[in-house]
Amino acid sequence: MQRVCFLLKVRPERLAEYRERHREVWPEMREALTRAGWHNYSLFLRDDGLLVGYLETDDFEAAKKAMAGTEVNARWQAEMAPFFEDLDGRPDEGMRALDEVFHLD
Q1: Which pTM does this prediction carry?
Q2: Residues designated catalytic
């Protein structure tokens, strides 16, 4: 299982709305993530807008590609893009995995 961590930056003026939108992620989006192989997926948000994402998957590139091919993901990404700073394109295209340097099992 591949562990993936990534960072994005939410605009400070949109933090409350971003948090609210994630209280009720669309059921079809949740289902698509699961089908695409996104497991144990979490988002953590700091008060200054730093967003840390974590997930486990068999193959991150395949999981991203599977989501990119869904209509629900296209809608979700279009709605979420305005929440982010320094983003060229969609949030799912701006995610860059961090290098794992240590893991304690």
Answers
A1: 0.90
A2: 22
